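Our working data are protein records whose layout never changes between entries. An example says more than a description, so a record of this kind follows.
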Amino acid sequence: MARINAVSLHEYRPLEQICHLARGAGFDSLEVSRPPFFEKLTTRSTRRTFLRWARDLGLSLYGFDAWVDFDPYARREETLEGFRRAIEFAADLDLGQVLTQDGPKHLLMRGRTPSQCLEALAPFFQEVADLAAARNLKVVIEPHPDTLSMEDSFAVELIDRIARPNAGLVYDCCHYGVGQPDTYLEAIGRLGARIHHVHFADGDRRTYALHLPPGEGELDLQGVVAALRGIDFKGTMTCDLYNYPLIEDGARRCAALVRRIERELEVG
């Protein structure tokens, strides 16, 4: 099964067109994005209708890139309510997991030390993970170059403090290439089994969120696959082409490769 994330395809397109583009490019699974899916599928009835339609199209759905407005320090209850809505949405669509992040550090730390941030984030994500578990969902935190979780020791301690089996990390090749341009391969070994999901893409190790088709960037993607094999990775994988300018062409060139790597790693 080859999966692509809808956020790669979402710009200025209705959700039906996104699904047809994914299928036409050779993908048979979709990671759902906030725009336009969360914005358009506003009731359980419309969500279940869409789920049936996607399945009839030959497209399975897995994962919700939730983009919850995130500030558990100053607006904890508002942020938690955003996760409640995201979890309800993901449960209605049988999406399996909710993707989030721990927020840009330059906006959220506000004089706090990393240790103080951990003291707030760990119990917050425990509550989110428990809400998700009640709906048979996982919660995976995606480190970005500008988040505290891009520091491996912080990410490890955060997941270990959350201490929930349905909570883990996303390893996004592009983000780690920018956030750790010289150590992105070693990061996989340090994070180990805490990695539950992979966003597979190339990158130039400089440009924020420029996800490239494999072979168009500077990342050692065979090294990434070998490192994932080294930790016996058995999670899930999504092709990510967010911000790539030739998205339809890029997607068509990625589907077979992603499917081959999934077979190599024995993941879906």
The chain has one domain: 3-265. The chain has eleven helices and eight strands.
